[in-house]
Every structure is written in structure tokens, then in C-alpha cells.
Design brief:
Layout lengths: L4 E8 L36 H8 L4 E12 L9 E13 L8 E12 L5 E13 L8 E4 L4 H4 L13 E7 L5 E4 L10 E7 L2 E8 L2 E15 L4 E7 L2 E8 L2 E4 L1 H7 L19 E2 L3 E2 L2 E2 L14 E3 L7 E8 L6 E8 L3 E2 L19 E10 L12 E2 L3 H8 L10 E11 L3
Parallel strand pairs: 1-13, 1-14
Antiparallel strand pairs: 2-3, 3-4, 4-5, 6-7, 6-14, 7-10, 8-9, 9-11, 10-11, 11-12, 12-13, 15-18, 16-17, 18-21, 19-20, 19-22, 20-23, 22-24
């Protein structure tokens, strides 16, 4: 990574309630492993799962052994000490034990069998792929009291007055671009991966004695570790800094950010990060994927859903959006007075249009608890209707024109892949 002025700002992360998408587990827990041999393997000729789990480590979850590739290396450059090599392909979830960015990491682990001891020894590894879940970042706001104007001068292009004191604020926008990882980057370590970003930007602000200065910044590159620590390279004008999230930067409510910057606060606006969360589950999700019969061409059956009852709720709005388009395309919208919907409850295309994307796509189902029926009861489906904040603000007005209608919300997310 290029040399930049380094700002070390540590973050205490509290993932937004109800949306830990990889399924947080206690440290050290792993799921059952599914082992599929890429070559014919006789019993005892490949590395055992316990050795693989010990090598992967305790800071990750959902470890899956995808394949083994056992080779006889007798007579090779390793042959005097080692007799076999087993290249094991593994996939695991990282960053979901309190970190900022849940990730799905794939690696090839190389084990060599010692001919003298008969034991497998781990000698090498290569990260082959990394996917991150940035959904928890969308629209989130942060503040840091420890950064002074001197360290931020370049980023704010010298606009902070000399001697000013104040607070640094950072807000992710509601659309985040692609995090493209370079697996061959020489800076990568076994637990840290570097990436470039495409179309990712944010807002920064300095709230000082002389007033508020707000800037747009580009996030050009960065890195992420297995435990979810995130570093971002921020650029504004000719200035660039590395922002490392940690103890001194804290997640704040969106309303606190708006208030600090002197933005107008609409008392009828819904701030979703201030709402209580609802636990939503679906039996139509298996191994992180929607069942294929919810798809438009493969049954068009609305998913099974179950959620918590909310005190004071007279009804619930249920809707599904395509996460890939930043929650702007609507595929399902109904208002019900129950807390469970059977699979296939809705098949009419005026109420439900199942996924029909050629590539694997994440779809999110939201459940919003309402005091009374909302002002708007139907939408045109498979159409752009605004993001989750727009919908919450619309649902916040009931059919009689009263505001304050939204009580809580929750969501469940999974990937849909066509057969």
C-alpha cells in the first residue's frame, strides 16, 4: 500500500442489532465439516479434520473442508523428509466474533507427512478468495474525540482554522461499492487481506469551535483481518490518510450525527438504528441460501417466515428487496396481523414476485411492526421504490394520518441462485 499519513483510530464495534448475517457464534465454535476428496483417499492417508481445525484457528467460525488433494512426493525435493503432501481447500467465516466486516475466506492449506514421525505438518497456506459483507456499514455514523486538526489538515484541505478544537465524524453512505481483493498482494498475511474499492465513498465532518466543515471522501483501498479490524485509505483533494478503526472511534446513532452537524431533525422521521430489533427466521433458508422454489420460474412461492410479536403492534409490514441494488427493487409487500407466514402463502404476482436474477443475488426480507395499518397498503412490484429508510418513513404514517406508527423492525437475508 502507498505511504500515507497514518491515523490509528481503534473501534469498539457493536454490530447493528439483528443483522449479524454470518451468524455469530461463541469463540472456538465450528460447524460440522463436510469433507469431499478431490482424489481417491484411503483411510488415514489424508490430514484428519482435528489437525485442520487446529491450523485454521479459533478466531473463525463455520469452517468447511471442501476437498483434499493427496500426492506422493517421495523422491521429490521434499522426499528425504516428507513422503506425502495434502493440499486442503477450506472455507470459513471471519470477522463475525465482534469485528466490523463479516467475511467468507477460502484458503489452500499445505500439509506434509513426515516420513520419520508419520505426522502431518502444516508448512504453507494461500488465500484464494475473500468476500466481505458490508451491509452493517451502510449509513452508519462514527465519531472520534482524539483526532486533532493537525492530523486532519490534509484531509480537510487546510480548511480547519489554526488552534481550533472539535470532534471528527465519519459516515458511510448508503451505497458501498465493490471490495476487490488481490490475493497475490505481497502485503497480505495469513490473517490480513488487502483490497481496492470501486465506487465507495463517505462523508467526513469536523465539528469545531469555528463551525462545521463537511467533506466527501473516496475510499480507495484498505485491508481487513480475520477478527474484523478494518483499515481504510481515505482521500479528499490532495490529502490521503489511513483510518484504522478501534477503541477511540465509536459507533453513534444517526440522529446524533445529524444533531452534531446542525442538520434539520424531522420529528416524524424514523431513524432505524434507534428502533428495537425483531428476530426474524425462515425455514426457507438452508446453508445461507433461499430454497429455489421461491424463484419466479420455479414455483414463485413466498418464503416461510416467523418473527417475534411486538407489544402494541396491530399489524406487520413484510417486504422483500434485492440487496444488490441497494434495497431499491421491491419484490414482495404485504401487511398482516400475524407473526407467521407459511411457505407459498403468496403466489399472486401482485403481492409476490420471486427472484429471477441470472447470477446469485442476495435478497432481504424485512418485517416492520406497526401500531396500525399504514397509509399505503400496496406497491408496484419488481420496481424501484426507494431504500429501507424511505419505506420506514412512509410506514410511519398510519391510514388515519397519524405519525409514529413504526415500532420495531427486523430482517433476514440469504442468497438466491437459480437452478
Amino acid at each position: 500500500m502507498k505511504r500515507y499519513k497514518l491515523i490509528s483510530v481503534l473501534l469498539v464495534i457493536s454490530l447493528l442489532s439483528g443483522i449479524c448475517l454470518s451468524g455469530c457464534k461463541a469463540e472456538g465454535d465450528v460447524t460440522e465439516q463436510s469433507v469431499e476428496a478431490s482424489t481417491s483417499i484411503t483411510e488415514g492417508s489424508a490430514v484428519d479434520d482435528s489437525t485442520i481445525m487446529e491450523t485454521v484457528g479459533k478466531d473463525v467460525t463455520n469452517v468447511t473442508v471442501n476437498s483434499h488433494n493427496v500426492e506422493d512426493i517421495t523422491g521429490s525435493e521434499f522426499g528425504e523428509q516428507y513422503t506425502s503432501r495434502d493440499t486442503v481447500s477450506v472455507t470459513y467465516s471471519a470477522g463475525d466474533l465482534g469485528g466490523l466486516l463479516p467475511q467468507k475466506v477460502s484458503k489452500d492449506l499445505e500439509f506434509y507427512k513426515n516420513g520419520n514421525t508419520g505426522l502431518w505438518e502444516f508448512l504453507n497456506e494461500k488465500t484464494t478468495a475473500c468476500e466481505v459483507d458490508t451491509s452493517d456499514l451502510l449509513g452508519t455514523s462514527w465519531k472520534c474525540d482524539s483526532l486533532g486538526p493537525d492530523s486532519l489538515s490534509d484531509l480537510f484541505e487546510g480548511e480547519i482554522p489554526d488552534g481550533d478544537t472539535g470532534t471528527f465524524y465519519f459516515r458511510f453512505l448508503k451505497k458501498i461499492g465493490v471490495f476487490a481483493f488481490n490475493m497475490d498482494n505481497g502485503l497480505n498475511t495469513p490473517d490480513e487481506r488487502f483490497f481496492a474499492t470501486v465506487g465507495t465513498s463517505a462523508k467526513i465532518a469536523w465539528a469545531g469551535q469555528a463551525g462545521v466543515i463537511e467533506k466527501s471522501v473516496k475510499i480507495t483501498e484498505g485491508s481487513v483481518t480475520d477478527n474484523g479490524i478494518l483499515k481504510l485509505v481515505l482521500g479528499s483533494g490532495d490529502g490521503s490518510v489511513i483510518l484504522s478503526f478501534g477503541d477511540n472511534t465509536v459507533l453513534i446513532k444517526e440522529m446524533e450525527y445529524d444533531t452534531a452537524l446542525g442538520l434539520e431533525i424531522d420529528e416524524n422521521r424514523v431513524y432505524k438504528d434507534s428502533l428495537p430489533s425483531i428476530e426474524v427466521t425462515s425455514e426457507t433458508i438452508n446453508s445461507g441460501n433461499w430454497d429455489q422454489d421461491i424463484g419466479l420460474k420455479y414455483g414463485n412461492l413466498s418464503p416461510e417466515l416467523t418473527w417475534e410479536a411486538v407489544d402494541g403492534a396491530g399489524c406487520y409490514a413484510v417486504f422483500m428487496v434485492d440487496y444488490a441494488t441497494n434495497a431499491t427493487y421491491l419484490f414482495w409487500f404485504v401487511v398482516v396481523d400475524e407473526t407467521h407466514l407459511d411457505r407459498g402463502r403468496y403466489t399472486d404476482k401482485t403481492e409476490y414476485i420471486g427472484p429471477d436474477r441470472p447470477e446469485p443475488t442476495d435478497f432481504v426480507v424485512y418485517v416492520v411492526a406497526l401500531k396500525d395499518k399504514p397509509e399505503i397498503l400496496s406497491y408496484a412490484l419488481d420496481n424501484i421504490t426507494g431504500d429501507i429508510d424511505d419505506k420506514l418513513n412512509i410506514l410511519n404514517t398510519d391510514h388515519a394520518g397519524n405519525t409514529g406508527n413504526v415500532l420495531a423492525y427486523g430482517r433476514v437475508r440469504a442468497t438466491y441462485t437459480q437452478p
